[in-house]
Amino acid sequence: MVDKPQLNPETGSGLDDLRNAFEGRLLFSEADMEPFLIDWRRRYQGSALAVAQPASVDDVVKVVRWCVKNDFYIVPQGGNTGMSGAATPDNGERNIVLSLARINQVRAVDTVNNTITVDAGCTLAQVRQAAEQAGRLFPLSLPSEGSCTIGGNLSTNAGGCQVLRYGNARELCLGLEVVTAAGELWQGLRGLRKDNTGYDLRDLYIGSEGTLGVITAATLKLYPQPAARMTALATVDSPHAALELLGLAQQQLSASLTAFELISDVCLELVAEHFPQCPKPFEDASPYYVLLECSDAESQAHATECFEALLFEASDKGLISDAIIADSIARSNSLWALRENISEAQAAAGKNIKHDISVPISAIGDFVVQTEKQLLSQFPGVRMVVFGHLGDGNLHYNVSPAADLSGAEHADAFVGLQSQINKVTHDAVAAVNGSISAEHGLGVLRRDEAARYKSPVELALMRSVKQALDPHGRMNPGKVLPD
Ligand code: FAD
Ligand code: MLT
Ligand code: ZN
């Protein structure tokens, strides 16, 4: 339990003062706060005076203003599924975790403007369902959609499995409502595709990881529901073969190609081991697999015809040696389960060193092969758990310990290699002008490394934005920018 610090001597306020400042719930017992003070990967743990769970936007304003008055820091939190430690407070004594989870209503759906306006605490699954009920598609698609929230998706500019067709969270957002670091409410929920009236404030808050303000609602783009969806899992020999298959798929399916995920064999082994209901799908193992999906506006017959033609041509060209085409939604879901369970399977297998990189798509094949060679020469036996969104150049290039060193007793020693393994991987990324964080943000995990790869000019510009929007450094201290 955090001792109640001497608060602002003038106001002498304490927990009950905060409790009376807003209508929502206030958690302050150790047990109640615990799940909010540790990240999903259980790599970061922090402390807070309390967890505030506002019940309305007005409550958010009141909590922020209380923090301003009493000189407290604010750590916004949605579903707490972030991968970079950005939703976990540091060990300071003056943190308030502000959970948006209870502000979770769908405010409006406009099927003519093709927009949906939702509270920040709505889960992604909730928003996708509301869109479907309105006969539309909200295309952001993450394996964490049952828990992650729209506020978190926008604050991390989440990517996921359909970026190559629909873009990431930023490209799907038209308007925001934000409580600023000063406790003012910015009502920017415009559902306009065109609005050139000054600086793009919306895009400053998107991807800011809670360090500039609190997103309380968003107006998002909706798309037509596809008439048909086809999913297949194909076997490929190498990332280079996968890239050739990507080129063929884009040529043949063009805009109807909506997902193109690379999966290394180790991933399916981990999934089969930790999710017995998801056995390896092919008799013979393949070094890599591609999970691809097309969404067709015309008809099931048209989708099937195009998809089968693509896979036959890929096979004739020797790009794939086998493929499973899902013949039902259940089969499609079972193929996606192989992909969506990789993260949890890898976590269940023990500590691992993750990378969330993006490089120009043309550089991916050489990056994967050459970086693996470098890592294996310096760290013999490590296992490459490579998977992710090949279609938009983003790979989760994760490293697990050698099989004989994967026991818990070796975990700390392996994690101790993190900075060396990160350096090999991220130097290879930087060499082809890639990014060391494609979709998970910088948080704490990548904060200091980003400072090493970003130019002083870029860092100075980012600091000026922070200084302008959060001059007292009240929002989410210790995240994104190095001290
Ligand atoms: P949190 O973890 O609660 O917070 C994340 C960041 O956003 C923090 O900086 C926090 O301060 C800030 N924040 C949260 N809500 C607000 C708000 N209302 N206002 C201001 N700041 C706020 N990510 C991807 O991009 N692509 C994937 O494919 C993907 N797959 C995943 C699979 C699994 C199994 C898991 C566990 C995670 C995955 N993620 C993925 C990571 C994570 O789900 C995303 O980063 C997601 O966007 C986080 O949403 P959240 O609501 O959980 O945010
Ligand atoms: C995914 O694509 O599954 C995620 O980004 C999660 C991860 O990287 O583990
Ligand atoms: Zn991802």
Task: Tell me the strand order in the biggest sheet.
Answer: 15-12-14-13-17-18-16
Ligand list: flavin-adenine dinucleotide, D-malate, zinc ion
Uncertain segments of ≥5 residues (pLDDT<50)?
1-6
Name the CATH class of the largest domain.
Alpha Beta
Helicity range: 25-40%
Number of separate helices: 17
The CATH architecture assignment of the largest domain turns out to be 2-Layer Sandwich
* Terminal residue distance: 27 Å
Number of β-strand runs = 18
Q: What is the CA-based Rg, rounded?
A: 23 Å
- The helix/strand class is alpha+beta
- Tally of separate domains: 4
Summarize the main sheet: 7 strands, antiparallel
Overall pLDDT confidence: 95
Question: Which fold name fills CATH's third level, the topology of the largest domain?
Answer: Uridine Diphospho-n-acetylenolpyruvylglucosamine Reductase, domain 3
The backbone outline, from C-alpha atoms, is globular
What fraction of the residues are assigned to beta strands by DSSP? 15-25%
Itemize the secondary structure elements and their pairings.
Blueprint: H1 15-19, E1 25-27, H2 30-33, E2 50-53, H3 57-70, E3 73-77, E4 95-99, E5 106-110, E6 115-119, H4 124-133, E7 136-137, H5 150-155, H6 163-166, E8 173-180, E9 185-188, H7 201-205, E10 213-221, E11 223-224, E12 228-236, H8 239-253, E13 257-264, H9 265-274, E14 288-296, H10 300-316, E15 322-325, H11 329-340, H12 342-349, E16 356-358, H13 364-378, E17 383-389, E18 394-400, H14 408-415, H15 418-431, H16 447-453, H17 456-469
Parallel strand pairs: 2-4, 3-4
Antiparallel strand pairs: 1-2, 5-6, 6-10, 7-11, 8-9, 8-10, 12-14, 12-15, 13-14, 13-17, 16-18, 17-18
Helix pairs in contact: 8-10, 8-13, 9-12, 13-15
The structure holds flavin-adenine dinucleotide, D-malate (MLT) and zinc ion.
D-malate is lined by residues 143, 343, 356, 388, 396.
